[in-house]
Amino acid sequence: MYLLVTLFAFALVLMPFLFWQQTWFGRKLSDAQIERSLAETTKPRESQHALVQIGEHLSRGDKSVRRWYPRVIALAVHPALELRQTAAWIMGQDREYDSFREPLHKLLLDPEPMVRRNAALALANFHDESARGELRAMLMPSSIESPAAGVVKYRLKEGEFVNPGTLVARVGSVEVRAKLPGEVRSRRKPDGAPVAAGDPLAEISAGHEHVWEALRALFLIGQTEDLELVERYSRAVPGMPDKLRQQAVFTARAIQDRK
After folding, report:
1. How high is the pLDDT of residue 20?
2. Please, which of 25, 71, 78, 120 could form a disulfide with 131 given CB 3.0 to 4.6 Å?
3. Given this model, what pLDDT does residue 9 score?
4. Are 198 and 171 in contact (CB under 8 A)?
5. pTM
6. DSSP class of residue 131?
7. How distant, in Å, are the alpha carbons of 12, 97, 226, 234, 256 from that of 253?
8. 3 state SS for 201-259
9. What is residue 42's predicted lDDT score, i.e. its pLDDT?
10. Residues 149, 239 contacting (CB under 8 angstroms)
């Protein structure tokens, strides 16, 4: 009995440690571990960890990780959303590596909005104006549409916040999850109403962090046509972080100086 109790106590300590080891991307990887994780793409979380570690190296100005850039580009077309999303982010960290532009242009057409947004932010670092359309979308509300026909039952109320993956509603037995962060501004259908595939279910406000990142990117590549959208955030509004207003002012000024 004493042995069983001891083993159980050990498991209580070991299991959280193993979970931390598998989920915390701050754990340092050796070059050999990065190489192995990038090659073993059947384990997306390990590959993502390796990508994050490459980003850490780049943040310190370590360009030796360029030897792994072909792997980064290969992961940009991986079926796993988290790998495409992280690869897009990595490619924006080295603005001197022009070969990243072509795969980033392709990621601007990705079906997942988080991938498109990371690609747009990365391209802005290259001063590539093809990113402007997606950056503008980051400043505007988004819509959640029904993936199927059926009866909608909402899980969230107006005014509640969502993150990517948050369960917003069910249509019949099909889950409807948010793909972008923000506040539920309105529910477009009554709870319990029949809906068709493609019907709008909810309008989500632009997430503050996404707005801030888009404003910073438009500081680099924004044009006169973007001024109206940018200046919406230059006025103090209750609930809006002051850093957004300040960044909007800086971005509007930079755009006007480029006229």
Report:
1. 33
2. 120
3. 37
4. no
5. 0.86
6. G
7. 56, 29, 12, 11, 5
8. EEEECCCHHHHHHHHHHHHHHCCHHHHHHHHHHHCCCCCCCHHHHHHHHHHHHHHHHCC
9. 84
10. no
CB atoms within 10 A of CB 186: 14
Q: How far, rounded to the nearest angstrom, does the alpha carbon of residue 68 sit from its chain's CA centroid? A: 22
Q: What is the mean pLDDT of each run of 10 residues along the chain (259 residues)?
A: 40 35 60 88 87 91 94 96 94 94 97 96 96 97 96 96 95 96 96 97 96 96 96 86 94 91
Quick one: residue 168, left, alpha or beta (phi over 0 = left, psi -120 to 50 = alpha)? alpha
pLDDT for position 112: 96
Distance CA 133, CA 114 (A): 14
How far is the C-alpha of 180 from the C-alpha of 143, rounded, in Å?
10
**CB 110 within 8 Å of CB 116:** yes
Q: What whole-number distance in Å separates Cα of residue 8 and Cα of residue 21?
A: 20
Backbone angles phi, psi at 192, to 5 degrees: 90, 5
What's the pLDDT score for residue 26? 59
Angle between helices 113-125 and 208-221 (to 10 degrees): 30
Dihedral sign from CA coordinates of 84, 89, 90, 91:
positive
Residue 76 CB neighbours (<10 A): 23
Taking the C-alpha atoms of residue 210 and residue 157, their distance in angstroms, rounded to an integer, is: 22
Q: What is the Cα gyration radius of the chain?
A: 22
Cβ burial of 87 (10 Å; 0-12, 13-18, 19+) is buried
Q: In whole angstroms, give the CA distance from residue 214 to residue 134.
A: 9
